[in-house]
Amino acid sequence: MSDSVYKIIDLVGSSPNSFEEAAKNAVETASKSLRDLRVAEIMKLDMKVENGKVAAFRARVKLSFKYSD
Amino acid sequence: MSDSVYKIIDLVGSSPNSFEEAAKNAVETASKSLRDLRVAEIMKLDMKVENGKVAAFRARVKLSFKYSD
Amino acid sequence: MSDSVYKIIDLVGSSPNSFEEAAKNAVETASKSLRDLRVAEIMKLDMKVENGKVAAFRARVKLSFKYSD
Amino acid sequence: MSDSVYKIIDLVGSSPNSFEEAAKNAVETASKSLRDLRVAEIMKLDMKVENGKVAAFRARVKLSFKYSD
Amino acid sequence: MSDSVYKIIDLVGSSPNSFEEAAKNAVETASKSLRDLRVAEIMKLDMKVENGKVAAFRARVKLSFKYSD
Amino acid sequence: MSDSVYKIIDLVGSSPNSFEEAAKNAVETASKSLRDLRVAEIMKLDMKVENGKVAAFRARVKLSFKYSD
Amino acid sequence: MSDSVYKIIDLVGSSPNSFEEAAKNAVETASKSLRDLRVAEIMKLDMKVENGKVAAFRARVKLSFKYSD
Amino acid sequence: MSDSVYKIIDLVGSSPNSFEEAAKNAVETASKSLRDLRVAEIMKLDMKVENGKVAAFRARVKLSFKYSD
Amino acid sequence: MSDSVYKIIDLVGSSPNSFEEAAKNAVETASKSLRDLRVAEIMKLDMKVENGKVAAFRARVKLSFKYSD
Amino acid sequence: MSDSVYKIIDLVGSSPNSFEEAAKNAVETASKSLRDLRVAEIMKLDMKVENGKVAAFRARVKLSFKYSD
Amino acid sequence: MSDSVYKIIDLVGSSPNSFEEAAKNAVETASKSLRDLRVAEIMKLDMKVENGKVAAFRARVKLSFKYSD
Amino acid sequence: MSDSVYKIIDLVGSSPNSFEEAAKNAVETASKSLRDLRVAEIMKLDMKVENGKVAAFRARVKLSFKYSD
């Protein structure tokens, strides 16, 4: 039957360089085990600060993928 | 001990006919593997549009169920 | 004086069949005792689940009506 | 160039029968003049009440379409 | 590589005594199987009412932990 | 007919000792006159401050109960 | 006992002249029957438009008052 | 057919004197070209500051009007 | 270097007459000591009620100004 | 007369490389036909995923421009 | 003149025992240097987790106090 | 005593090149005078537009640091 059910999860990726790279890390880690990812929505952006410097950019990403029933 | 812990997940169901059927698809697919579902909250409703027509109604549903620790 | 004051209340209606019927139940129950209802806004939709099936559709509805001072 | 720009608009559709029909009216009216509609998100649902009865179901729908620059 | 990916889940804990105990139950149940929990954010607090008395305090808690890819 | 309509109200309880006691005061005061309370959701927590000390904990609580039509 | 319980209601006042007057109408109508009003929070402002002109300013106001148990 | 579709737009009006006048400017400018405006909702209020003084009051207003298909 | 950093603060102004005057009081008090204010956004409006009458209009205002590093 | 009215629209720009480039595409496409753009606010960021890779960064941007009455 | 201006700040207090104690710590630390604190609103509650246990309860608290102009 | 109190402030950084650089400017300016910064959350992203081009990327950043009582 064609009416698939999708599951939504939130992942947090991280990168020393940019929010784009942080988000890509989350998406590409998820795509190793999840099927049929199509859109990844940014839910939150923050930065880890160490010794007064930005040490990492982080992106919380909402992903939907086929739910295996 | 009686103080059970519940887990919350978000699923997206879909139907060519109605939001109710879309939500039911999500709930009934989940209930095959999850224990003790009691309330399913609608988080978002949208529609897939193809060739200027509504091709599917979709419902994002938040479900809680017993967390197996 | 023409500057009427309205009161706003939230009701939850329920139906085994649809969100529309759930919302109608709330509106029509309210209209038995309240004057001058004109708009009913949907605030929340959820479903009661029993034995893995959707047992009821529920609609929380915000209603405004003439406040009797 | 492939990086298209999309515009987002909000329409309100209405129906005496259901929220689905109200949303469809908005989408199908829009599709007469707008190109490349793909998703229509429900932003708000309400009802028009007349003489204590629900006279119309209304759906506010957010649509994106190709922006003609 | 150091750019770990974290997953975020929502659990609901419960206690007859306090919101703190309810939240602790959720965190400590999760920590049996999840690695590297560091912060648990309260998303919602509610109470189960029976016979006009508060029968349980409940806390919905958002937790992040290392995602095993 | 089984499709009951519920009404939702917001009460604010207060206590010199804790948010739990504040919320309980609201619920138990309401339960003297309202039927069939089942869930009480915390909407807001604040504190009254006097002379630089917390003089009272306050909890705004949303309650639903059977609507007498 | 000093731990009073307050109830919160939402009223909509209206005025042809200003939002301040609209809000005052709501507050002063409420104060005829409710005890111990202290703060009235503006929840929403809108305007009724007739024949392309603003016919009324309206203010939705949240009020708390002593709950008679 | 009676099930009209409405479009919603956001305008920002401005005035040196008051938020009411700012909102009126937005509504009355819109009503020169748009049909069947009935409600205008305030979405945001801010002020332009020049040399430490409030130079203008501004109101962002959401308007709905008949969509010409 | 031209990439200035701004700080954002929230002030609450008050007036017996209007929200505009309340907001102006906040802005003009701030401008005595802060440099380069340009926009002041209204975050919340409420009223102090005494003896059933509106005793003061209050405006919470968000202001940004040059941060002295 | 100096009290101009502005209109607000939402556009979605896209780029294979970054959110900045996606947002710039939206702004610069809009500026071909709209007068007096000054601020563009990011409303939402998401990514298109194809074959487990981020295929495009997208930015929803809110723009205000002079409304031609 | 009586129309005082208040400033609003956010503090985060912490306690090994309870949210109430965490919030009290924030309020009482603030009251050492700030005048005329009256209400402290809870903005966020979270917990620090160490070795799978809740190590601290934390409360973000919004406080208003007299602004010294 | 170990239960430190933190203060939260909002800064806006700016950069001609990227949101990351804008956020870094805010964090690094703050770290000159504030102790123990650890996380910086992005609250809002916008762009300054001049002559139809993006002239600056801006990031509003929420920072917490040890409150000196």
Number of strands of chain A: 3
Task: Identify the quaternary structure here.
Answer: homododecamer
Question: Could you describe the largest sheet of chain A, including whether it forms a barrel?
Answer: 3 strands, antiparallel
Q: Biggest interface, and residues per chain?
A: A-J, 17 and 14 residues
User: Uncertain regions of chain A: pLDDT < 50 for 5+ in a row?
Assistant: none
Instruction: Please report the first level of CATH classification, the CATH class of chain A.
Output: Alpha Beta
Provide the helix percentage of chain A: 10-25%
Shape of chain A: elongated
- Secondary-structure element string of chain A: EHEE
Mean pLDDT of chain A: 93
Pick out its properties.
homododecamer, alpha+beta, 52% strand, three-stranded antiparallel beta sheet
Describe the structure.
The structure is a homododecamer of 69-residue chains. Chain A has 69 residues and is of the alpha+beta class. Chain A has a single domain, classed as Flavin-binding protein dodecin (Dodecin subunit-like), CATH 3.30.1660. Chain A is 17% helix and 52% strand. Chain A is built from one helix and three strands, in the order E-H-E-E. The first copy, chain A, has one helix spanning 19-30; strands at 6-15, 39-50, 53-66. A three-stranded antiparallel β-sheet of chain A has the order 1-3-2. The longest helix of chain A is centred in the middle third of the chain and has 12 residues, at 19-30. The mean pLDDT of chain A is 93. At the D-J interface, strand 1 of D face strand 1 and helix 1 of J. Strand 2 of chain G pairs antiparallel with strand 2 (39-50) of chain H, so a sheet runs across the interface.
